[in-house]
Amino acid sequence: MTDAFIPAPPLLARPDLAALSLEGMVRAEAYRPTRPMRAVVAVADIHAGADTASERIDQLLFGEAFDVLDEADGRAWGQARRDGVVGWIDLACLAPGLVRPTQTIRAVDAELPLNALVVEGAESGNLRRIGTFETDPVEVAERLVGTPHELGARSSRATDCSGLVQQALLACGFAGPRRSHEQAELGESIARTDARRGDLVIWLNTTPGQSWTGHSALMLDATRVVHASGHHGAVVIEMLAEADARYLADGFEAARFRRIL
Question: Using CA atoms, how far apart are residues 4 and 156, in angstroms rounded to an integer?
């Protein structure tokens, strides 16, 4: 495997302002404490810049926490607490303070998206008590087959490749980092010939200057993957060999296989 540029984890910092917790660790003109807020809409987009026309880099699901450090023109700059992404979000999508969720959404066709965090409501087919988890990330991903592929999305309404893997892992109680290069560090490395259901497959494409660092998929079995594919425009099941040939032809690195179960 050739050496690759791996982006550093995001910090809530820029030259003029940084989170107070980073004082002494990063340089900034000023440091301030963050203000905890939570998403009060089903799905809210997080953008790279204050302008809503800038690139969408993530999403916040209902009930998830967002630590706000700066505000401008009805927009908030801060960090999504569940996956660490730093960006801008509409203030209208947030409410002050945090609440302790008691349940999470388990259905993929409910009013709120998969893995949204809620407080009220009796346990049903749509809900799962906090602290209880699904047992098979692949089964979760299979329920999302047909979901549209959209860059920057990470919900059961639309998702990109790493968003699909992230949501399947979160539903099963595993760490769910947001980017492919982060997912490529989960678990332990295995040989391609040993790959089985539930293993991760990551094709890295870590050219400096781009926000997306590769492509992520889950092994459905020894020969097939389930993934959110830009090529197909949706979450699909595909032969591993076909996906592998396409990403290699597009300049991605050789696939890395990781076992987390």
Answer: 31
